[in-house]
């Protein structure tokens, strides 16, 4: 059990989870832009752009964010 807790704490992989009218993002580096129709993030591997309407940050922690609103498109540009 200790190993699982340690793995969770040390996990730094970018994750994006799409829920109904919400998007949960963890392990991003910074928010590049924030508008009600577009939010873009910088990750270790590139950029993520979320487009839609009435987008807002519902919850924000150090490296976690919950976005609410109507999502129409998610663009991922990873530079591997």
What does this structure look like?
By secondary structure, this protein is mainly beta. The chain contains 1 helix and 6 strands. It has a 6-stranded antiparallel sheet with strand order 1-2-6-5-4-3, with no helix packed on it. The longest helix has 9 residues. It is globular and about 40 Å long. The relative contact order is 0.23. The mean pLDDT is 89.
> Into which percentage range does the β-strand content fall?
over 45%
- Principal-axes geometry comes out as globular
Helix tally? 1
Order of helices and strands: HEEEEEE
Characterize the largest beta sheet: strand count, sense, and whether it forms a barrel. 6 strands, antiparallel
The count of DSSP E runs of length 2 or more, i.e. the number of strands, is: 6
Structural class designation: mainly beta
Mean pLDDT across residues = 89
Q: Helical proportion?
A: 10-25%
What is the rounded Rg? 13 Å
Characteristic key phrases:
mainly beta, 6-stranded antiparallel sheet, single chain, 62% strand, 6 strands, 11% helix, 80 residues
């Amino acid at each position: 059990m200790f190993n699982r807790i340690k793995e969770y704490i040390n996990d730094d992989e970018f994750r994006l989870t799409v829920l109904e009218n919400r998007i949960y993002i963890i392990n991003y580096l910074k928010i590049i832009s924030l508008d009600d129709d577009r939010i873009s993030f910088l990750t270790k591997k590139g950029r993520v752009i979320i487009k839609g309407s009435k987008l807002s940050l519902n919850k924000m922690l150090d490296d976690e964010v919950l976005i609410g609103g109507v999502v129409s498109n998610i663009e991922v540009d990873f530079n591997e």
